[in-house]
Amino acid sequence: MFWLSFVECVLVLSVFAWAPVMRGPEGFFGVRVSEEFYANEGRALLRQYHVALFVALILVGALAAFSPAGWIRSVPPLLGLAGALYALFHFRRLVQPHHIVAEKTRTAASLHVRRLSEYTNVAFELVLMALLVTPPLVLLSVYPHLPVRIPVHWNLAMQPDRWVTRSLQAIFLLAFTSLWLQGLLLLVKVSALRTRMPLPVQNTAQYFALKEQSVKMIMRFFDGMRLLLAVLFGVIQLSAVISALPALEPLKPLAAVVIGACGPVAIGSLIYFIVRSRQFNRQLSELAGNSLPAASGDDRGWYGGVLYYNPHDPALFVEKQIGIGFTLNFAHKQALYVMAYVLGGASLLFVWSLTGT
Amino acid sequence: MLITIDPADRRPIYQQIVDEIKALIAQGVLQEGTTLAPVRQLAADLDVNLNTVATAYRVLQGEGLITVRHGSGAVITSRTTATSSQDDWRKALRTALAQMVLAGLPRTEILQQVTAELRALKAK
Description:
The complex is a heterodimer of chains A (357) and B (124). In chain A, 61% of the residues lie in helices and 7% in strands. Chain A is mainly alpha-helical and 357 residues long. In chain A, the strands form three sheets. A two-stranded antiparallel sheet of chain A has the order 2-3. Chain A has a two-stranded antiparallel sheet with strand order 4-5. In chain A, α3 packs antiparallel against α4 (75-95). Chain B starts with a strand and ends with a helix.
């Protein structure tokens, strides 16, 4: 478990190491700087930042190695995350005095309506619906035949190592978690469409066409993740049935293979997505040259490069200044609904998991 | 279906949006029945105020070129303006031609430019 946590820390710190330079001088630690600064002083700051992250990794590793087993072992990774965030904000503050204000330039935009329905395949959604609905229905139908104690967690050898008392609450927790995650990923798809999409005034049509391809790739990736999650949660739910009913024992290896394969497939897909996103960003940058307006205007409304609150901006989702992806404009009315779904849903499921077991 | 706005242009931004959409209609790029981007989407993409785009759409609706339905967005309903008179477009033409003359362009080049623009607009 220590090595698993260590690998997780390495992955998280790798993301932190890469995030400040993802957008080049347009978003160095989320700050627009000159090419000259980026190539010279910026490089020196980046090296110091990487050293800080490396030291954080060593400290976290040492703390984790010497921590006693139990909940205390989860503290070092959290400290590592806090340290990495502090380092990110600290170095952003050092870079900020070198910020160059983007000139208000000519901007192009498309009049084409961006609709989720254009990126939705009805057959796929029906299959997904079947995958989401079937496992809880199966569980419900065999509920009277399930033992009083049902397994809900399995070790790497597919042996159950945690049980709960049979109850409808316990049975449906995973199903609702799966549904909530589907909603979350749908929100991400919507955010990809509703994020501001300014176009450069040079090579506008080609840029727009390439951007459309990039959006399609994002949609396909998140649909893939939705399918993967539906399969994973579905098999986990059915594993409770398989483990509880001896007649279904032969299906255990199949369930183990499916669950085991989900991890590598997810990681492989994520790596592919990141690589393709970078390729698209590079091609889009080449097409746009210097004529692309700043993605989120100037620094108005940005706090630490990660929090955005701008009541004058009509966009609900904006591209992050640091890292990839989007963030909410917390000044937007609909941001409350999104946060209510994300935080409210997570809290409800957490409380449910505590009370239902 | 691409439009461009220029902060350095003397025309207000909403007028630029109106003119760009009218040009696309005249060129035949925007046909009757085409739905335009919602106000919020276009305002976010152009990084302008919501009211700027809303004003542009109101002007176009006033001229009979689009219909704005709350919830369904703006739809192109006509390729001819309902309100402009011969006086209006003659004035606009005179202004544009005067500017070309003051820029020192010879008559033949002015005629060439006008013909090229007409061709681009696919005028019948």
